[in-house]
What does this fold into?
Amino acid sequence: MAFRHVAIIGLGLQGGSIGLAVQEALPDMRVTGHDISAETRLRAAERGLVQQVFETAEEAVSGADLVIFCVPPGAMGAVAAPLREAIAPDALVSDVGSSKQLIARELGAALPDHLVIPAHPVAGTENSGPDAGFAALFRNRWCIVTPPEQTDLLKLSALVEFWEALGANVERMSPEHHDLVLAVTSHLPHLIAYTIVGTASDLEDVTQSEVIKYSAGGFRDFTRIAASDPTMWRDVFLTNREAVLTMLQRFTEDLTALQRAIRVGDGDQLFDHFARTRDIRRSIIQEGQDDSRPDFGRSDHGKGK
Amino acid sequence: MAFRHVAIIGLGLQGGSIGLAVQEALPDMRVTGHDISAETRLRAAERGLVQQVFETAEEAVSGADLVIFCVPPGAMGAVAAPLREAIAPDALVSDVGSSKQLIARELGAALPDHLVIPAHPVAGTENSGPDAGFAALFRNRWCIVTPPEQTDLLKLSALVEFWEALGANVERMSPEHHDLVLAVTSHLPHLIAYTIVGTASDLEDVTQSEVIKYSAGGFRDFTRIAASDPTMWRDVFLTNREAVLTMLQRFTEDLTALQRAIRVGDGDQLFDHFARTRDIRRSIIQEGQDDSRPDFGRSDHGKGK
It folds into this structure.
């Protein structure tokens, strides 16, 4: 492993999981960290998310040859800028943000003397904060790196090696393509989930307790991702605006078509559409990106529990 | 238990689960069944979904004092009508359909001499067919009964007792209110999930293999319910058209508002909305209607698996 000391700025779900995963998979590597919240720093120390939690980001990055920013997309630039002097000139700077074009620009502008290779581990849960992290988060998940056209290939391969050591499979993509792919696989689904959960809670002819009571009919699946960190998701939509709006437009067109099929009673169109979407599920399970147990194994089928 | 013999017409996820649950919870009760598909009848017999599988529905219902139709909502009337003579005059007729107003009318018209008390167990998985059923499906789930205004209260309480014996909690509702509540807690979520999975698979600038690969970002949650039985869901939308279109209208308004917030960069509106939706998730978990483990316990967090 080319890196000897990784500094993690931001000790929530992502930063905390990286810290725990490094200590498990790369025991020889030094892991320091910092979080802007004193409460989070305390919990991070208690849980041992990193070997040493520092009061300031300057102390945390001192001596590190890899610095990973794990803060909300909208905060990257502001958090990185003050560290221009504190980060070693030959250190590699990376992040875990869910949108890459804007973050690459912001980190580049904040740290003009440093090499920045943005990354995005496509892994997470609905939980956030210093108690949410766990070492296995990145296992069998994809991590997308979006290096600039001209980059230091040694540093790039070192970053790839780092993520592979944490259990991830690494892919290289352009920031533009990343933002388009994630708009459909992650950002749009979250927007839709946030929307429908809001709609359901605002009805006057159906009570909120009824919505909760009968959520097993399908609604509950949406509430999981609609419980994700609001600050991070606000920033995702603001930092990947164009791609999200593009995908949303396509979604709205398709929804309008199905709405019309329901209104005019076109059962064949509905059936054909519903039959088609089954195959995608099958492929996702074959690729090991989801749990094949019915209901995600929620109710321990057959076990009589 | 007031019933001595239940006949199940349709041996898929719901019918098969009822058969298995009855044999587990009500060992003294006779359970017969029939399915229109010879293949399904064979598997049902192999799995022992009911005590006896019959070639014809007439034989299956003969002597039964409870007949439950577990066929797609659109097929209820056509399947029930030929059984007018075969079903004992004092037998109670019920069903498990996801929309209640139209099904109540159809079963009433098909069996004018019989007492019909429709029911809807709010429980299911993305799987369907004779291999999908399991005895625990209804445990700690709600079953909604929608009896007519004037009904036989002894038969009604017997039906309630039957579902409680299978582990369900029973609620009484008017068919109209049921269809509105389920439109938001089940039908709209399925429509949205079917739509977004279709949208994602039709893109030209993002390949389907990319959608599958990076689905862990949130998309995969939608694919679960979008893998549900196409025939049943086509019928649900056609038989609960008005309520679904009403809820869809509200959803579209809310989505348009969030779309605008993204376009104009109104971070506060996004944050407020996203923060609000977290509480619903918490309540659903408190009510025991979903799995509290992060990611539905998909990745066995912390277990290092």
